[in-house]
Amino acid sequence: MQIRSEWDTLREVMVHRPEVEIEYAMLAPRPFLFERVFNTRIALEEHHRLEDTLKSLGVRCLVLKDTVVETADRDRAFREKLERRILDSVRFFGSVQSVEAAKRELERNVHEMDSSTLFRILTLEPSIDLKKDNGSVVEYPTVYSNLPLANLYFMRDQQAVSQAGIIFGNMRKRQRAKEADITEFVFREALGLRNTFRVGGEGTFEGGDFMPAGDFALIGTGPRTNLQGAMQAMSSGLMDFDEVAVVDNPVYDFMDRERDQMANMHLDTFFNIAGKGLAVASVELMKKARVSVYSKSQRGRYERMADTTLYNYIRQNGYDILDLSVGEQLCYASNFLTVSDRKIVAVDTQGVARKLMGAGVLGDQVLSILRKELDGRRMFPDSQAVRDFGIDVVKLDLSELTGGYGGAHCMTAALARS
């Protein structure tokens, strides 16, 4: 597994089909880091279409759950490790006697559970509170899910693949903290990958902030990835770029007082690469984004060499830029997945715009911007600019799934390009 640039031909991805864990997020979207409530049945259909589309384009799609289940069913050693993770994650509460008895029973029974059940337990991490009513012999169970991993279907963020291996992240938000534990377990134990690195300590790092571009790479910092995490990734020994540009993810001037996380959550929420020498991004945000450029020294270490803006840095590297409007950017236009040079799988941003306008989650200023853009012209990826730059687009309706704050790029962990 290796990736040197976003425009090399995509060969393999891993995805996670949303399951029962996202149902919890529908009860309280914002605390689960979702933008809005959405129809989960339709969302699952959208996800299947995303998988089918990628397969039709020659991309091998690994499904997280299928990988776990199939490996557990054929590999006893992996199955035992999976069972141990379940035993370590399930919590019981109640009297000492009840808790000890429940633990012993789970240890006896876990071997009989099917692998699909074990995977669901892994994503739900349940706790069971055992109490007895007066005169009752059998305990009454109250079941809690410590924190269902509703964001797990955004498979981009738990890790990043570079030329020499996989860098596993350290998620900034508590709601997502366990996700990288699961993907690291699967990649290392089910797929047998060993050339890995894990960001830790005070450093936070998420894959949506990493953008490889051949001789150089970009790492965004902001709400999710911090400078310590970026520096750990750069010193991991798994990056072999001549330069790494560390970007301070910006916001629009009208958002300075109340930062909208979709404007700058990750680098890929406002910037992406559609082909060699072609970026698709908000030029306004690129000009605001401060960049520190690190060059690789003869000793193999990255040393800070210059400060500039993202716009100037990209232009100095010979890139053309397809400029996104505010409305396009806020509707996930830059969150497309490049499958080969100037061929992308993109979100239907106009469909997302209509969904957002009807959801009651936007401020008055953003709502006004979207109304004007929908009335005035065709939005990316249907715009004339897309045709002018020779971009071949496969457009998908992901308007339900984007309710979790992300598009096709966020939903796919790119594993191999050539």
Automatic annotation (TrEMBL):
Pfam families: ADI. Keywords: Hydrolase. One of its GO terms (biological process) is L-arginine deiminase pathway. It comes from the Archaea. Gene3D superfamilies: L-arginine/glycine Amidinotransferase, Chain A. One of its GO terms (molecular function) is arginine deiminase activity. This is Amidinotransferase. It comes from Thermogymnomonas acidicola.
